[in-house]
Amino acid sequence: xxxxxxxxLVQNIPQRISRLKELAYNYWWTWHRPARxxxxxxxxxxWITTRHNALRILQEVSPEYLAKMAKDPxxxxxxxxxxxxxxxxxxxGHLWYPHTHPDMMQHPIAYFSAEFGIHTSLPxxxxxxxxxxxxxxxxxxxxxLPFTGVGFLxxxxxxxxxxDHNGWQEASYPFLEADKVATRPARCPEGxxxxxxxxxxxxxxxxxxxxxxxxxxxLYLMDANLxxxxxxxxELTARLYGGNREMRIQQEILLGIGGVHxxxxxxxxxxxxxxxxxxxxxxxxxxxxxxxxxxCTFAAAQERVRASTIxxxxxxxxxxxxxxxxxxxxxxxxxxxxxxxISHDEFMALGSHNGAFNMTALALRLAxxxxxxxxxxxEVSRQMWSNLWPEKKVEETPIGHVTNGVHLSxxxxxxxxxxxxxxxxxxxxxxxSEARLWSRIEExxxxxxxxxxxxxxxxxxxxxxxxxxxxxxSNTSTPxxxxxxxxxxxxxxxxxxxxxxxxxxxRSSLLFRDIERLKKLxxxxxxxxxxxxxxxxxxxxxxxxxxxxxxxxWARNPEMGGRIAFVEDxxxxxxxxxxxxxxxxxxTPRKPMEASGTSGMKAALNxxxxxxVEDGWWAEAYNGRNGWSLxxxxxxxxxxxxxxxxxxxxxxxxxxxxxxLYYQQDRDGVPxxxxxxxxxxxxxxxxxxxxxxxxxEYTEKYYLPAIQKSLASGK
Length: 715
Ligand SMILES: *Cc1c(COP(=O)(O)O)cnc(C)c1O
Prior knowledge:
This protein is 44% helix and 13% strand. The strands form four sheets. Strands 1, 2, 5, 6, 7, 8, 9, 10, 14 and 15 form a ten-stranded mixed β-sheet that branches. The protein has a six-stranded parallel β-sheet with strand order 18-17-16-19-20-21, with helices on both faces. Strands 11-13-12 form a three-stranded antiparallel β-sheet.
């Protein structure tokens, strides 16, 4: 088979700076500021137009300019220091895990996820689950864990969103141009481009494997778009969560079972297998099959799989579960129960739950260690799944929790980073978990912190304006489109951000329950409030799309005077601007449906205050002084009652607390008490809600014990 050498598509680079190519092919550059700076200096225009895509900058910069930079002393100084840091980071001796657990380095961890949010230029994520997997991967690299990711290289990624003149979401799926993403053919030990074949029902699907470097970690991504496959099979890895149940089961067979094949063909020998959500749970079936074919009894195979498997569940609602009918399972797995030496009924019992084959139930039964993603979500999961352990009390259901976190160096704004370097520690990223260190935030002059914040706010509003200008130039905009785009937002007035998937439980329209009361707030003469919304609805989620339409129609309604804006095409790129640039981050899920949430942590990292229902991570973080909680301890029999009460609380907190605090400014324009709250939020949230804390917790609570158990079960 022909091997397509993506990396030869970059032009010749002068010898002196030739390692730029190596840098562009390792997503390490995305979270190291000097490395980002290097690409930005090569072509500042392309940096903006390619939305920070290092590889495309290398492809687009003129050879003359490259030659000039290869002789520019200041560029070379930066280049040399970046390369030094890269080499230092890729060696592992000084990192946490190799240092604390040198004997564990030969026991790798394999991490399976249907999506990975590494960078906007690699569109293989749709939302929080993917961004979490990406942040987990980056942190595993920073900590030096022997860690490998397995997923898909979706050729059409997740869709791009554009709002039409009815306020209806239009989805488009541009093809990923293989030479514009930093992937390489994965090499088998024999040196050829790695390819696997996975039986799916009566067919055989061929998959090519790509490697993406994320610092010291490799991600192996499957792609079915090969000539050897039938046209319909070539589409199996085209889109995230596309198609019907039949397509989904095939996709999940590729992920779970194909993923194990990749591990084997690459000879990776993991001791720990981590399932990020149930999509990849068929992995346990393939590993059972392997053990039984090696001569284990089914019971012994089950023991060994359980010892080495970790399952992280993310879904607190039964409707969100991934399930397949038994009929569909029979169609695709009728060969398997014989090979496992169990009966049809015993096989179905592995995933059986409420009349269907449930991927979460399968993972719960076959993973020896299970966790939810916040304390509250752990509790909700124990209640939800206690019936799988009928002999245990609800609180003894073996589901723990590791609260999610965010990768700090990926999400911190440049200006905030400067403040932290100056006042917290020049090595604040390395020392981020030292809670006491963060009390130094008190030393930042109020005025300085406020100026940094207003600078980031300006950057967000400028970015929105430039987007609106581009739309106007390309003649795709109407006056009400411009009104909704945020061009009228006033940088001196309070800005509240709300950006997330448009799923109905997130209740993005809560704010609009009492329009007259809302109008009073936004049109106040001296103390106006403004809102920025962003987010996509799943293309098959009609209620979600209607919700989005409702918000969008308010945004472009002249009565709102341009004080409510909607930013199209929410992704990691625009998310960075939003979580850094608004004053308040609003979150109104219907409790307890938000398993964790992570965008509020990104906001807090940048000095943005959270105003949130006390659900998910916020139930742990909120201390009465570091933001606002929208909590009610009442229990409601009807959803509309809960919504009515929560909306009332939201208006009241805005009117009585948030707005007065923001506008209570000194003569020099600094809102002292607001800044005090920013400092309280930074010092309490940042050290706790990071992937540093999270991955260390996974390691100590789950990875290390699983390695021990797994070694013992193999004896
Ligand atoms: C962080 C992030 C999310 C997750 O945010 P939630 O708080 O879970 O809603 C989703 N999408 C993008 C693009 C993100 O950056």
